[in-house]
Each structure stands twice: as structure tokens, then as C-alpha cells.
């Protein structure tokens, strides 16, 4: 993930913004008797990107990955329309507690830019629905030049999107955030239709970082800077912010860890999972990490 890459992360202010008051109000809507549900994963499962994660001799990467993590931010569905049979194959390889969070195909978001996409959206949703109970949430990532002038397209897409499939949206242009009237308009749209406003935390684009929730769920796409100290400190801050939100009522946390050099993502994810287990008393599985020269899992040492 090159979006927001920075060559000098040591000079960046990584502090999280203060919560918006409306976030607190949104979280009050939740049923606090519901058990806490946390999903943490990477963006890919292929061996090339996650080198040194798979033990020698691993024959099926998804089968192994899905028994180390409980979720995947599925970027493969962005590059081509996923077929029904492919979705079923992926679903059948994963255990019952695993969840897929597929990205909406670029033909909808980037090529047609939400213009005249109803047939494509129907095809995508029909196929994605074959994940059945293993579908977490789909997400729409819009191009960074998709601006407020295209707001009517966003409204139409959301209003016509099937209610049976949970939807999150990632906006990447500062127009959506810098103009209060514009941001409140889009936040109201999301709240009305129960669309989750994705939080993107990446080093080189602090101008897009927000912590404004529009549903009582949080979907975070975190991008490390391949700097061990700052990456872990940032995740510590996220663990603390999530603790505040859990105390306020949030029960569904979806957190996906990227790195510009993706092979480090499982190691950073393992650190964060261990941190959350200590923070919340949960028992999320900590992935086994294979050292580069052997097929044994070393002590985490975090």
C-alpha cells in the first residue's frame, strides 16, 4: 500500500485527533450487553507479499492464513469482479470464525466513478453474498480525485446499495473533511443509511485522518511506515483510543494492518493483537511468526 507513504516518518506528528462529539453520541446507540467483537488482519494472504510468514512447505496460503488470523481485508476483489465460484472457494477454505472484508471492484469505484453502476453493483453483491456468514463488511474506496462535485453519485450509490450487505466507505479527498458543511452533509448521509465511515491512518496523509464514526462500529485501515518504533507507538495509541470507545459502547472493531513493505504486516499485526488481548482481556489468536531461516515460531518479545 503506497498511498500515504513517507520517507521521513520520524518528523511526523502521529497523534490521533480528538474525538468528535457526534462520535460519542453514535456510540450511545449501541447495545452494551453485546459481547466485544474484534477482527484484526492483513490486506493480503499471498506468499510473495507476506514472505517469512508461511512455514516451509505450506501448500495453500489462505487455509494457513485463516487459521492464524480471524479476518482479511480482501483487496483482490478490487482488481477484478469476483466470481461466485471463486467466492465459495475462498469461503470454504476458512474456518467458521473467519470474516472477509472485500473491497468493491475498481470498475465501479475508479473506472465508472459510481456513474451508471447499478448493474455492476448488483453483480458484485450477488457474488459477494456467497461468503454468507463469513462476510464481515464490504468497503468502497473512492479515488483521491473523487470530490464533492460528485456527491450526487455517492448519494445514489448508497441509496441503492443492498441493505442486506454491510457497507463502509473510504473518502480520500480533503474536500470531504476541510469544509464543515460538506463533511456534515456526508456524515449525515452515512448515518441515515448505516454506512461506516472508514478511518485511514497513514504516515504521509495526516490531512485525511479523522476519527468521526457514523455507525457504532469502527473500521480502521492502518498503514505503518516500516519504522518499528513509530509503528508500535501508533498502535499503542490506537489501543488506548479503542479502549475509550469500548467504554462508550462500541462492540465491533475491524482493524487492518498494512505496510508499504507488506512482508512486515503479520509481525506488526501480532504486536497489536497481543496489545489488545492485554487491554481487553480477550483471547484473540496471536499469529505464529516464522523466522527467516527456520520453520519455528520465535518468541514475540514485544
TrEMBL record:
Gene3D superfamilies: Protein of unknown function UPF0759. It holds the Pfam family DUF72. This is DUF72 domain-containing protein.
Amino acid at each position: 500500500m503506497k498511498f500515504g507513504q513517507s520517507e521521513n516518518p520520524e518528523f511526523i506528528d502521529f497523534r490521533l485527533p480528538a474525538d468528535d462529539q457526534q462520535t460519542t453520541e453514535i456510540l450511545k446507540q449501541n447495545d452494551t450487553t453485546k459481547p466485544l467483537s474484534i477482527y484484526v488482519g492483513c490486506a493480503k494472504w499471498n506468499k510473495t507479499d507476506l514472505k517469512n510468514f508461511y512455514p516451509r512447505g505450506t501448500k495453500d496460503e489462505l487455509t494457513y492464513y485463516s487459521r492464524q488470523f480471524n479476518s482479511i481485508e480482501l483487496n483482490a476483489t478490487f482488481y477484478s469482479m469476483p466470481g461466485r465460484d471463486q467466492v465459495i472457494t475462498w469461503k470454504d477454505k476458512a474456518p467458521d470464525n473467519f470474516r472477509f472484508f472485500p473491497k468493491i471492484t475498481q470498475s465501479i469505484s475508479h473506472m465508472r466513478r459510481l456513474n451508471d453502476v447499478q448493474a455492476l453493483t448488483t453483480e458484485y453483491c450477488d457474488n459477494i453474498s456467497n461468503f454468507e456468514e463469513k462476510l464481515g463488511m464490504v468497503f468502497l474506496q473512492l479515488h483521491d480525485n473523487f470530490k464533492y462535485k460528485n456527491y450526487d453519485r455517492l448519494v445514489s450509490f448508497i441509496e441503492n446499495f443492498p441493505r442486506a450487505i454491510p457497507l463502509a466507505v473510504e473518502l480520500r479527498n480533503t474536500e470531504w473533511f476541510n469544509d464543515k458543511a460538506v463533511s456534515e452533509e456526508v456524515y449525515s448521509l452515512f448515518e441515515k443509511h448505516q454506512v461506516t465511515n472508514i478511518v485511514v491512518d497513514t504516515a504521509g496523509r495526516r490531512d485525511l485522518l479523522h476519527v468521526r464514526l457514523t455507525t457504532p462500529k469502527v473500521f480502521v485501515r492502518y498503514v505503518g511506515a516500516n519504522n518499528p518504533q513509530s509503528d508500535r507507538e501508533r498502535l499503542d495509541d490506537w489501543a488506548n483510543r479503542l479502549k475509550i470507545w469500548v467504554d462508550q459502547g462500541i462492540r465491533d472493531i475491524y482493524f487492518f494492518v498494512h505496510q508499504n513493505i507488506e512482508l512486515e504486516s503479520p509481525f506488526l499485526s501480532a504486536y497489536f493483537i497481543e496489545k489488545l488481548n492485554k487491554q481487553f482481556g480477550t483471547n484473540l489468536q496471536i499469529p505464529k511468526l516464522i523466522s527467516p531461516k527456520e520453520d519455528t515460531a520465535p518468541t514475540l518479545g514485544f
